[in-house]
Amino acid sequence: MENMIINHWAVLICAVCNLILGAIYYSPALFYKSWKAENKLTDEQLARAHPGKIYGISFILAYLMSYNMAFFLGDASSDIAWGATAGFLVGFGWAAAIFTAIALFEQKSWKYIAINSGYIIIYFTIIGAILGVWR
Prior knowledge:
Elements: H1 8-25, H2 32-38, H3 43-47, H4 51-72, H5 80-105, H6 110-133
Helix pairs in contact: 1-4, 1-6, 5-6
């Protein structure tokens, strides 16, 4: 593609947004208690987690997803409206859809699916908007 534009700073910010949005979305003020209950996790189990490993790998995966979206939105005519729309479509039509299929086979609840799919859709919509506007 001759007109491919990827703003590497925007990609980095999108990856950071994954961690920030997750901290807000899964906080006690929003979905933490419901998410924890749907996963049947205890405070003791969560205390034994390895945050460096979890956040490190999550950031790398978010960076990969952000670059992937940047390639999809790399056309010079992309803007915030198309970026947000594309992000929503990727989040809803691809990522949340496959997540839902897997969760159904794992016999997870619809509440579990809704909480996590909501995060997925919001995240992709936000990064699509960022990548669409920050040319």
